[in-house]
Each structure stands twice: as structure tokens, then as C-alpha cells.
């Protein structure tokens, strides 16, 4: 079995054909709180991003992979390593599953398991961190199930629709 292939999903590099999928995800206002986005992304910007997605993680300092179902090859989400710091062997990690039908189905857990193994075994990171809004119970449960530990809370860190929300930082040491 491939490093980035699980039982039900696989992770793959972004392709030019992912333009519409990434555009929809990036412009889904329900996800903006998670991604810290405040303005829509144009097709032009997404297209330019995809044209540069081939850059090595050591150059771009990030890696974004599509989460795809094995049986249908359908893209259902994205999983990212960001703020990659090879000197200190750490990176941030984030995941988003596109629609409610695909959430709570084990796809996110499988994707996270695959990317954790890749980060540890191929990128040789020593630690990963995840920033999660304190009210995002499903994400907190997902990350803590892999051993991520709460290391701090940023008070009133996220401002969304007139409300301040705390953001927790979770860390995993390998």
C-alpha cells in the first residue's frame, strides 16, 4: 500500500483540474472561520495557486493535498501542512472535509493518519501543531485521538460575525 493511500481514501497532489473544487472550498463562507479567510478568492488567484502547487514543500513551506475517495476518485476535502520549518522539524496541520455527508464518516481520520505518517517518516518532522476553535468539538476529538495535546488557548482570537472565539493550539510530538 502506498504511503498516501488508505483503505477508503487516498491523498494526492493538487492538479489543474481541481480548480472548481478548490474554488468552491475556498469560497465557502461556512469554512472561512476555520481558514481565517475574510474575502472571496477569484478563479484567477486559485488558478495561479494551482500552477505553483508543484513546488517542493522545502521551497513553498506548505503542502496541500486533495483527499479523494477510493471507490469514486471524488475529491472530498483538503489536508495541509503549513508553516513548514525543516530546521526545527515542525509544521502546522489542517484539514477540511467539503460537505456534511462526508463528515463523521472516518475519511478525515484516515486522511490525518496518512499525513501524520508521511510527515514523520518522509519529512522527519518532530512536531506538528493544529489551531482549532474551542467550539469545534469534532476537530478537537479527531486531533486528540491521535495524541495531540492542548498546549494553550488564544483568548478571543477569532472574530466572526460579531463574535470573538477562543482558539486552542494542539501539539503532537513524535
Characterise this structure:
This is Acetyltransferase. InterPro entries: Acyl_CoA_acyltransferase (IPR016181), GNAT_dom (IPR000182). It holds the Pfam family Acetyltransf_3. Residues 9-170 form the N-acetyltransferase domain. This protein has helices at residues 19-26, 32-35, 43-51, 57-60, 107-121, 137-145; strands at 9-13, 63-69, 75-85, 90-97, 127-133, 149-160, 163-173. By secondary structure, it is α+β, with helices and mostly antiparallel strands. The protein has a single domain, classed as Aminopeptidase (3-Layer(aba) Sandwich). Strands 1-2-3-4-5-7-6 form a seven-stranded mixed sheet. Strand 4 (90-97), helix 5 and strand 5 form a beta-alpha-beta unit. It is globular and about 40 Å long. The two termini are 23 Å apart. The mean pLDDT is 91.
Write the layout of secondary structure elements.
Elements: E1 9-13, H1 19-26, H2 32-35, H3 43-51, H4 57-60, E2 63-69, E3 75-85, E4 90-97, H5 107-121, E5 127-133, H6 137-145, E6 149-160, E7 163-173
* CATH topology descriptor: Aminopeptidase
What's the shape? globular
Termini separation comes to 23 Å
Per DSSP, the total helix count is 6
In terms of per-residue confidence, which ranges show pLDDT below 50 for 5 or more consecutive residues? none
Beta-strand content: 35-45%
Query: What is the highest CATH level, the class?
Result: Alpha Beta
Helix-strand makeup class = alpha+beta
Task: Kindly report the average pLDDT value.
Answer: 91
